[in-house]
Amino acid sequence: MSPPDLAVQPADAGPATRRLVNDFSIQVATANGSGSQTANLVLLRSIFRMGVPVSGKNLFPSNIAGLPTWYTIRASHRGYIARKKEIDLLVAMNPETAREDVLALEPGAAVVFDEPLKLDALRQDLVFYPVPFDRLVAGACPDAKLRRLVRNMIYDGVLAKLLDIDLEEMRLALRRQLGKKPKALALNEAALDAGFRFAGESLPKRDPLGVERLDQTGGMILMEGNAAAALGCMMAGVTVVAWYPITPSSSLCETLIDYLRKYRMDPETGKATFAVVQAEDEIASLGMVIGAGWVGARAMTATAGPGISLMSEFTGLGYYVEVPAVIFDVQRVGPSTGLPTRTAQGDLSFVAGLSHGDTRHPMLLPSSIAECYGMAIEAFDLAEQLQTPVFVMLDLDLGMNTWMSPPLDYPGEPPKRGKRLTPEKLAEIGEWGRYRDLDGDGVPWRSLPLDGLPPYFARGSGHNERAQYSERPDDYVRNVDRLARKFETARALVPKPVVEEDPEARIGLVAFGTSHWAAGESRDQLATEAGVRASYLRLRAYPFTDELARFIDRHDRVYVVEQNRDAQMLGLMRLELSPERIAKLRSVRHYNGLPIDARSITDDVIAQEGGALS
Amino acid sequence: MSTPVPAPGKKVNRLGLDVQPYRGSKTTLCAGCGHNAISERLIDAFFEMGMDPAQVIKLSGIGCSSKSPAYFLGASHGFNAVHGRMPSVATGAVLGNRRLIAVGVTGDGDTGAIGIGQFVHLMRRNLPILYVIEDNGCYGLTKGQFSPTADLGSILKNGVVNELPPIDTCSLAILLGASFVARSFSGDKKQLLTILKAALSHRGTCLIDVLSPCVTFNDHDGSTKSYSYVKDHEEPLGDVSFVPFFEDITVEYDEGTTQTVRMHDGSTLLLHKLETDYDPTDKIRALTTLQEYGRRGEYATGIVYLEPDHEHFVDLLNLVDEPLAHLPLERVRPPRAALDEIMEGLR
Asked: Which of A301, A485, B86, B139 has its CA 20 to 30 A from that of A71?
């Protein structure tokens, strides 16, 4: 794949004298494993530190070294941080994709490239900046063996000059990245300076792009969603973690392990207040989580689609024996192995009813770093309050890419541990039954091993209110009806959607997760480019709450935006909405493995609106 | 409610409990099923060792064997999991609360077929658990198909001959790191009880493969798991006796023919050698012996392998002494300063 997206926009008039300040996207094309990550993060952070909103997205292959990788940085003074479809500046470092990458650009785009690739012969309508990387790196790094590692830092220096990025911010960002390795730091600084000097001497500015200081990122952080979710788990007081490595979820557990080792060793004994097991597969991971949840520990696992498939059996058990469990699904493209390093929102309908038989599971739908963190904490509360597996649905884009965020807040409340039987409660109710609905909310009271209260026998086979084996029709029906009632209780507990109502809008957009960022930008495009005003509802959880139905009622047509082929979220809505409301739903889908962009939504909505209006 | 006082003369254990809380509900397995005998021995072992039922968790997978935790230790929590996956649930439970004493009951299909993946990894981790395989070489609940422990050449009731070699769970367990490995026979009351009691004094994975004939589907001529075949081909590696740490008994023995092993909890295991100079702490010898007996169509029974001080999984993970499930908030939620430090690193 080279063309990150084939062009769809009408071309601009070519190189212009206008200036495009703080509103562009850069794409760096390298080979996987060539050490470009440091250079890309330094570039991202230096723009961020200049107060300009940014986002960084890594488009990488399922491979350790050698295959093409693209890193996209978007700077936007308007705060747009979704992927931008059009590339304004390409850094072409990978001979394998350079030609295709250049051919895919919009007229007027700029290209920084490795001089021997002679890309400037390919097109006349671009701005080319040839850079002799080998010569520059040789000067900056005397040791030939190390040159490969610092070569990429040269383009940071070149871009600092071309885009007017404060070189001092780059040096600071580099120090932050490599501060603990003085030798590597010195070599990288030399390469950075060499690129900067070269651009100043040999590359007259001919493109309109530039960075100017703003004050829109003060106090903010840059973080990956997986790390934020990991931090949430630690703050929620997780004690048992069982996992099996799988892209794109591995960094969630790996970061959690780092945090736990740093902050959760008992200061007096030096022993761990947590257990982490790298299990033999995803089946065992969830089995361990359920075992730990059964005895009262807060336990979690993280996985992606193929792992979710394997976890379906234990999810059904967790639902039926009513044990808390927290499962993070960092979604990637399926089915089967699919595209392991590409993003999707493709597990929704599967997870909602994961397992055979009648089952329903709550899903939380974070769209930001703050929600990855906050919903991780909330998931542990919900799992214990509802005594059931709860899923937190990230995706690769949110989990593995770098996002701006306000700093994360310290949890204000103690954990909610749900209905645990106590001697007082037992005395009050007299005869206890593990699965008896005393409160009418479908959630029974549970005892735990070694709590001194009556034991029970948890079983995945049919059981009555006292947890005894039963095949009686009335016992079965009473039990599963209570579980359905419990799911209604979940509806009242899950986070409500965020609604931005436009009183004059005839249409509404519904989005969730990472689609949120593109949806917000698309709303602005619809208004400014087509005069179409749209209200907006951002889902934050499944099951749906009343707000969704009311939102649909207030609009003529509602576009459900999602990143899968089959309109899965819309499908879940169909299961419970009235025919009148279903008739108002429209679908906007994006499923090529790349993060969704605003342009795709806008074009699709306008096309459908055209049909609706005519 | 008043605490029931045992009737005078009723036998009580060191906790002052009679056998009642160690019993379970009425079995629903076939009359004469070997599994029922195993449940009886488990009741005896837990009672005689004076284990607190409140501290015990019983777990199982799916199958006839896996029904049996309902038939013993009614005063303990139980978990009947999914087919072949009991080891992972037990692992999570024991890590969640390290004070729990876990007993897992499984069958030869639950362990050797669908559950072989979780089985081998449980053995590798040497999780503290008493893991009992009720081994009858067939699937009872689905009416008698072969399981992976069926011996080569064994014949089903309908004449089908098993043409695949059996999985020897004991050999696998020894190879992979289990620290207490035994084989017994549901019909050998004394040996099985002694092994179970010894296992309860061990901290680590105790794998006990108990040959337990299926009286309904696998008890005919031509079956190598029938009652009569096992009875005729069970060859004890020696006589085993066991002195629990809380019993003040001095046993006289001949050092030439008896080996003593001090167990984790201070109990003493006495292995009276018969004709061989079998040493159950010798891993290679244990594996060779299992193979030699197997080649002759015999079952070597007794404690096959024992490594009393092998580090178990809970210690390996360096867990705090208190159960993780019950740690107070201040021990599991780092202070505000920790979050501030992390945020500072991300600016």
From this structure: A301
The Cα A278–Cα A312 span in angstroms is 19
Of B59, B89, B343, the CB nearest to A221: B343
**B303 Cα to chain A: minimum distance (Å):** 28
- Which pLDDT score, from 0 to 100, does residue A62 have? 83
Rg from Cα positions in chain A: 27
Chain B neighbors of A416, CB-CB under 8 A: none
Using a 10 angstrom Cβ sphere, with 0-12 exposed, 13-18 middle and 19 or more buried, the burial of residue A226 is: buried
Whole-number pLDDT of residue B8 = 64
Q: Is residue B343 part of a domain?
A: no
Domain ranges, residue B90: 20-330
CATH of the domain at B38: 3.40.50.970
Residue B2 lies in a domain: no
Residue A221: its H or E element: strand A221-224
DSSP sequence for A575-591: HHS-HHHHHHEEEEE--
pLDDT tens digits, B15-51: 999 999 999 999 999 999 999 999 999 999 999 999 9
Question: Which residues in chain B are contacts of A271 at CB distance < 8 A?
Answer: 318-321
Q: Using one digit for the tens of pLDDT, what is the confidence trace for A467-498?
A: 999 999 999 999 999 999 999 999 999 999 99
The C-alpha of A371 sits at a distance from chain B's nearest C-alpha, in angstroms, of: 15
Minimum distance, in Å, between the CA of residue B65 and any CA atom of chain A = 14
List pLDDT tens digits, range A97-152. 999 999 999 999 999 999 999 999 999 999 999 999 999 999 999 999 999 989 99
Distance from CA of B169 to the nearest CA of A (A): 18
Domain edges within chain A? 20-210, 223-405, 423-493, 498-613
**Partner-chain residue, chosen from B69, B85, B339, that has the shortest CB–CB distance to A283:** B85
**Is the separation of the CB atoms in A507 and A527 below 8 Å?**
no
Q: Say which CATH architecture domain A498-613 belongs to.
A: 3-Layer(aba) Sandwich (3.40)
Number of domains in chain B: 1
* In chain A, residues 213-232 whose CB comes closer than 8 Å to chain B: 219-223, 231
Mutate to test the interface with B, among A220, A277, A434 (most CBs of B within 10 A): A277
Alpha-carbon dihedral B41, B47, B52, B55, rounded to 10 degrees? 0
Task: Confirm whether A223-405 and A498-613 share one CATH topology.
Answer: yes
Residue of B nearest to A236 (CA): B333
Q: What is the pTM of this model?
A: 0.95
Q: Are A235 and A192 in contact (CB under 8 A)?
A: no
CATH number of A20-210: 3.40.920.10
Q: Would you say residue A227 has pLDDT above 50? A: yes
Kindly identify which residue of chain A lies nearest to residue B336, measuring between CA atoms. Answer: A410
Q: Which of A412, A417, A373 lies closest to A394 in space, CA to CA? A: A373
Which residue in the set A221, A276, A314 is minimally distant from B347, CB to CB? A221
CB contacts, 8 Å: B55 with chain A:
449-450
- The 10s digit of each residue's pLDDT in B40-98 is 999 999 999 999 999 999 999 999 999 999 999 999 999 999 999 999 999 999 999 99
Per-chain mean pLDDT for chain A: 95
Nearest to A240 among B85, B90, B95 (CB): B95
Place of tokens 């030399």: A190
Q: Tally A–B CB contacts below 8 A.
A: 211
Query: Could B77 and A449 be called an inter-chain contact, meaning their C-beta atoms sit closer than 8 Å?
Result: yes
Q: Are A280 and B319 an interchain contact pair (Cβ–Cβ within 8 Å)?
A: no
Report the half-sphere exposure of A312 (CA within 13 A, side-chain side). Answer: 16
Q: Where are the beta strands (DSSP E) in A396-441?
A: 402-405
Residues B46, B56 contacting (CB under 8 angstroms): yes
Instruction: Kindly report, residue by residue over B195-240, the tens digit of the pLDDT.
Output: 999 999 999 999 999 999 999 999 999 999 999 999 999 999 988 9
Residue B302: inside a domain? yes
Pick the CATH number of A223-405 from 3.40.50.1360, 3.40.50.261, 3.40.50.970, 3.40.50.1240: 3.40.50.970
**pLDDT tens by residue, B156-205:** 988 999 999 999 999 999 999 999 999 999 999 999 999 999 999 999 99
